[in-house]
Design brief:
About 30% of the residues lie in helices and about 25% in strands. The chain is an alpha+beta fold and about 240 residues long.
Length: about 240
Amino acid sequence: MNNLFLDSRNWEAFFIEDVAEIISGRDIYEKERLDGLVPYITATANNNGIGYFVANNNETLESGCLSVNRNGSVGYCFYHPYKALFGNDTRKLRPKKNNRYIALFISMCITKQREKYGYGYKMGTGRLKRQRILLPVDTNNNPDWAFMEAYMKQKEQQILKPTIYKLCKQLIINDILGGVNCYAPIGKPFASPKFLPRYNEVSVLKKLTIGTDKLHMYHQHLSIMVLTDSLETMAA
C-alpha cells in the first residue's frame, strides 16, 4: 500500500461500540494494593495510563486491549500490549479487529474526542458507546483496517529508524574501541576515560590530580560510516 496519507482517504463516523467491546474496570483501593509488577491502569494521562504496579489479581486482567479514561484525565485512550488490571475510572475496550496497529490507530481517534469531556461531563459507558469517531473507509464504506495497519506501521518506522541508526553507530564504535563506555557525537574527537581527570583520596578530602599522559583522541573510521549506512538501509 503506497498511498499512506490521511488526507487521501475517505472518512466516515462510527460508534465506538461498533468497533470495540466496552467493559467496566474494577477498583483496587489503596489499602488493598500489594506492591508488584502488574500494571494497574487508572485515569491518568501519563505513563500510558499506568498508575501503580501491583501484585493483585482480578477479572479485569488482560493484554492487547485499550483503556479509556471516564474520569480524571477524561477521554485519554491508551493501548496495552502487556497484561494489566483496569480500575473503574477507566473503561477497557476490546477492538473487534484486534491488531496492535489497528488498536493504536483507534486509540488516537478516541483521544481526539477528549476535548468535549471533563469533570462535569464524564465519559461513562453509555456515552462511550454512542461516541462517534472518524475512521478511514474502503470502497464499501467499511472501516479500512488494512490502511490503518499500514499507516501505523509507517509511523512506527519513522520513529524507530533514527533510533536504530544511532544505536548501531554506538555499538560499532564501542566494539572498535574495545569496550570504552563513553560515547561522543559521530565524527567528533573525544578522550578515552582512562585519561580524564582523576581524584585521589587525601585524608577525608578529595584532591584533584591531572594525569600528564597525552590524551588519546579517536575519530570515526570510514568503514564505520559504510557499515552504519548499510545498517540504516536494512532497518528501513
